[in-house]
C-alpha cells in the first residue's frame, strides 16, 4: 500500500510521530478537492501518499527547515508547504497562489490541521508588495517553471543568505539561468526521476 510506503519513509527519517497529522491532511485534502480542484482529480486517493506527500518530503534527507521562513510558490493544494510545515512545526510557512478559491480551501485545511504560523497569500509572485522584500530564508517551488520574471522576484524576496529550492525531473532548462546551483538526486521507485535543485542567492 502507498500509505505504508509513506509511513516507512517517515520512520526512515525519524518522523513517524507525524503520521497522524498526515492522515488528517489526506482526509481534508480529499474533501476540499471534491469541491475545488486543488490537485488532479484523476489521481487515485491512495496515490496521494506517494506522488504528493512522499514527493514533497524526499528532500528532507538533505535539508533542514527548522526555524526557517519559507515561501511555497505555486502551492496548489498546499504542496510541498504543508508537508514541510508538518515535519518542521517551528518553521514559518507562507503558501502562495494567485487563485483565491484555491487558497480559501487551503486556508480551511490549515485551520483543520491547527497549523500555527502557516499562512496563505493570494497573489502573483511579481505582484507581492515591497514589505515582502528580503523576507524569506527559503523559496520552494514544486510545480512551476521558473520564467525570467519569476527569477527576478524570487531573488528580491530572499534574504541575502537565502536559497531557492526547485523540484525537478528530466526538464532542467529553467535551471540554466542560475549560477550558484547544487543538485541532489532523490529519485524514488514510487516517484520516478526526481532532482532537488538548490540555488543560492
Biggest sheet architecture: 7 strands, mixed
The SSE string, one letter per element, is HHHEHEHEEHEEE
CATH fold type = Rossmann fold
Give me the CATH superfamily: Vaccinia Virus protein VP39
User: Are there runs of 5+ residues with pLDDT below 50, and where?
Assistant: none
Ends distance:
40 Å
Total helical elements: 6
> Percent of residues in beta strands?
15-25%
Radius of gyration: 16 Å
Shape: globular
The helical percent reads: 25-40%
Mean pLDDT, all residues: 96
CATH architecture: 3-Layer(aba) Sandwich
Q: What can you tell me about this protein's structure?
A:
The chain is an alpha/beta fold and 201 residues long. It has a single domain, classed as 3-Layer(aba) Sandwich (Rossmann fold), CATH 3.40.50. It is built from six helices and seven strands; from the N terminus they run H-H-H-E-H-E-H-E-E-H-E-E-E. Strands 3-2-1-4-5-7-6 form a seven-stranded mixed sheet. Strand 4 (136-141), helix 6 and strand 5 form a beta-alpha-beta unit. Helix 1 (2-12) packs parallel to helix 3 and helix 2 (19-33) runs antiparallel to helix 5 (100-113). It is globular and about 40 Å long. The mean pLDDT is 96.
Amino acid at each position: 500500500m502507498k500509505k505504508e510506503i509513506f509511513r516507512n519513509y517517515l520512520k526512515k527519517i525519524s518522523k513517524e510521530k507525524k503520521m497522524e497529522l498526515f492522515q488528517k491532511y489526506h482526509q481534508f485534502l480529499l474533501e476540499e478537492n471534491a469541491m475545488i480542484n486543488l490537485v488532479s482529480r484523476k489521481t487515485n486517493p491512495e496515490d496521494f501518499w506517494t506522488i504528493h506527500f512522499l514527493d514533497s518530503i524526499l528532500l528532507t534527507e538533505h535539508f533542514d527547515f527548522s526555524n526557517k521562513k519559507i515561501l511555497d510558490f505555486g502551492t496548489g493544494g498546499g504542496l510541498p508547504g504543508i508537508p514541510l510545515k508538518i515535519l518542521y512545526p517551528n518553521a514559518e510557512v507562507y503558501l502562495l497562489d494567485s487563485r483565491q478559491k484555491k487558497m480559501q480551501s487551503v486556508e480551511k485545511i490549515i485551520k483543520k490541521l491547527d497549523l500555527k504560523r502557516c499562512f496563505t497569500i493570494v497573489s502573483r509572485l511579481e505582484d507581492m508588495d515591497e514589505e515582502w522584500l528580503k523576507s524569506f530564508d527559503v523559496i520552494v517551488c514544486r510545480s512551476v517553471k521558473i520564467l525570467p520574471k519569476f527569477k527576478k522576484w524570487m531573488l528580491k524576496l530572499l534574504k541575502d543568505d537565502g536559497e531557492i529550492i526547485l523540484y525537478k525531473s528530466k526538464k532542467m532548462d529553467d535551471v540554466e539561468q542560475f549560477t550558484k546551483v547544487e543538485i541532489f538526486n532523490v529519485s524514488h521507485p514510487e516517484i520516478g526521476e526526481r532532482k532537488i535543485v538548490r540555488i543560492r542567492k
